[in-house]
UniProtKB/TrEMBL annotation:
Pfam families xref list: BATS, Radical_SAM
Record family assignment: Belongs to the radical SAM superfamily. Biotin synthase family.
Record's protein name: Biotin synthase
GO biological processes: biotin biosynthetic process
Subunit structure and binding partners: Homodimer.
Annotated metabolic or biological route of this protein: Cofactor biosynthesis; biotin biosynthesis; biotin from 7,8-diaminononanoate: step 2/2
Amino acid sequence: MIETLKQIVIEGGTINEEQAVALSQSPDKEALYKAAHQITRHFMGNKFDTCSIINAKSGNCSENCKWCAQSGHYNTVVALYPLLPAEECVHQALHNRQQGIERFGLVTSGKRLSDGEIRKLTETVRYIKQASDIKCCASLGLLNKEQLKELHESGVENYHCNIETAPSHFRTLCTTHTIEQKLETIHMAREEGFRICSGGIIGMGETMEQRIEMALLLQKEQVHSIPLNLLQPIPGTPLAGTPQLSEEEFLTTIALFRFINPDAYLRFSGGRSLLSKETQRKALYIGINAAIIGDLLTTIGSQVEEDKILFTEAGYSLTEETDWVG
């Protein structure tokens, strides 16, 4: 079955939910991992995409996402500050580019930015583009069409908006906005000319079937950059006591995402520090071919030089052009 479904994907076909569930239940995990590896190499070669992010506005978010340290609904230990000055963002962008990182993402807390905040941020982007050739990304919440247009015109190329989880699971984790609003933002951003980056968090109490549901939605939306976060339970949030996924369950999820999204960048994101180096290497073999490196939003990230060694030892090149379409 694994070989048959692998061949369908390699020949340009797609697998359905029933077939993906059957793959997830296969006892021969090594065969599943090997097939996913072959799909990765067939569609993506050895290209590896790196990006870094800066928490450009932190905390006191109006939304009640149960996983998030920045929600104002929960008592968490997180820095609170307004939009950072342009100088700090430019400094961080230059620092990351000097380390060979290809993309720099400006990330803000909150449902969306005000028009005034957008104007400040677009000025910051213009300063970054004048000072460096680093590619700019943004994750600013549920912006409207006019805000997205202004952002794109300033030089931002990629817009990030995670769907977070399966539609059938989302309402159990957040009630202050909907997954439909997220998809509307993604559609508007694409219409404005942005490349789209969208993924989610695994390990938030969802079933394997719901992870497959999320992967199929991202396939339907033709998303080619998919951050896969592993939940880091934050003290003070409702998910603080959530047990960690087994490494096998994590690796199986990576393989299924690769079968369903064969030509996407599957991106190591938050929670990677919870994994052993051996499991990280296995994930890279199976299908992870992108990563957020450096510090993350509210948790410590990775050491850039150590990561570059890890990725190149896995057979990836960090010097290939990695822009995706749409």
